[in-house]
Design brief:
Layout lengths: L2 H10 L5 E5 L6 H15 L4 E6 L17 E2 L4 H10 L2 E5 L11 H6 L3 E6 L10 E4 L6 H12 L7 H14 L10 H12 L4 H9 L4 H12 L2 E3 L4 E6 L1 H6 L11 H5 L6 E8 L4 E8 L5 H8 L3 E2 L3 E6 L3 H11 L4 H5 L1
Parallel strand pairs: 1-2, 1-4, 2-3, 4-5, 5-6, 8-9
Antiparallel strand pairs: 7-8, 9-10, 10-12, 11-12
Helix pairs in contact: 2-5, 2-6, 5-6, 6-7, 6-8
Length: 338
């Protein structure tokens, strides 16, 4: 953000406004951490603020402070549409194309509210009057902290804001192990701990509350793991039948794809998850080094994301999706074996 843009946003926020904050569909820790962190911050300035998520999110995020105030568009569309229509400002966090908001897309497009984007994904659409877009950032939560700093209001950070932002930074950096983690990321995490974030409790709430069914589902996923050594690639499949067998709940497969990437001599990993309700195959892609899964997902599976972490979808069945994936790999032989 330019200095002029920051000053204009600061002026906008000086008097109470009707504000809506939106994360992407199927929100993760960074999406919910950033939106709720911003929610608590804006409430300190007497703004009427509401977080509207396109749909529900995993149970392991439902301890976040004031999570119970979040509206879900897929089940509360009438009240959500009214709030969007009446909003003075709409913040879109952790996504940069309105179609990533699912069924909310049309309402957001039609809204006359001033839109402010804060996001770290590649190739942003040009829909916001104010854009803070930086693909080098570890997480949107790190950017929200920077946003507070740009405004000169880090002193407003309290334990609730700190806990929300720490959650997003921790989850989107893979507990601070991904390449996007910088020394500044660690400095911000340290500052959030100083503001009251209990890093041990947050880690336990996210990672150490696994159900027996989820652990069994992980066992199934690992049994299904396949390796294609000539392309340094590993992939996992999970059918709807397998998900049902282990009582799948939203968020249960979070992080499964990373097991494939952890194998020796593997630099590209994928997981294919059947979703009969939407009649699609959901795809998560991860990579090491310079191999761009963002470009791979955009080119072949109607998706995108970051260089080393992206997602996509397929309208083919599970078997044909996997066959398509395997058939594409020879085109990337040089990149995968360089």
């Amino acid at each position: 953000m330019t200095e002029q843009a920051i000053q204009e946003v600061k002026v906008l926020l000086q008097s109470p406004k009707q504000i809506v904050i939106v994360p992407h569909k199927n929100p993760d820790g960074d999406a919910m951490g950033s939106t709720l962190g911003l929610y608590h911050f804006l409430r300190k300035f007497n703004h009427e603020t509401t977080v509207i998520a396109p749909n529900d999110y995993p149970e392991f995020l439902k301890w976040l402070p004031n999570e119970d105030t979040v509206l879900k568009y897929d089940s509360q569309s009438d009240v959500c549409n009214k709030l969007i229509e009446d909003a003075d400002i709409i913040f879109t966090l952790d996504f940069n194309a309105l179609n990533r908001a699912g069924d909310m897309e049309f309402s957001l497009q039609e809204s006359r509210a001033i839109k402010i984007m804060i996001d770290h994904h590649q190739q942003p659409d040009d829909y916001a009057q104010y854009m803070y877009s930086d693909v080098a950032m570890s997480s949107t939560c790190e950017m929200v902290y920077n946003f507070f700093e740009m405004l000169g209001y880090t002193s407003k950070i309290d334990v609730n804001i700190a806990s929300c932002l720490y959650t997003g930074i921790m989850t989107d950096t893979g507990s601070f192990r991904f390449p996007s983690t910088t020394s500044q990321t660690h400095r911000i995490a340290a500052a959030l701990i100083d503001y009251g974030a209990n890093h041990a409790e947050i880690h336990n709430a996210i990672y150490d509350t696994i159900s027996y069914d989820r652990l069994q589902l992980l066992g199934c996923a690992l049994t299904n793991l396949k390796v294609i050594p000539e392309f340094k690639t590993a992939y996992i499949t999970l059918s709807q039948e397998e998900l049902n067998k282990y009582n799948f709940k939203k968020g249960d497969t979070e992080g499964f794809v990373n097991y494939g990437l952890s194998l020796n001599n593997i630099i590209f990993a994928a997981i294919f998850i059947e979703d009969q309700q939407q009649n699609i195959i959901k795809i998560s892609l991860r990579s090491k080094g310079d191999f761009s899964v963002n470009e791979f997902a955009r080119a072949h599976f109607d998706g995108g994301g970051h260089t080393n972490a992206a997602g996509g979808r397929s309208e083919l069945d599970l078997q044909n999706t996997v066959e398509k994936f395997i058939s594409i790999l020879p085109n990337y032989n040089n990149a995968l074996n360089s």
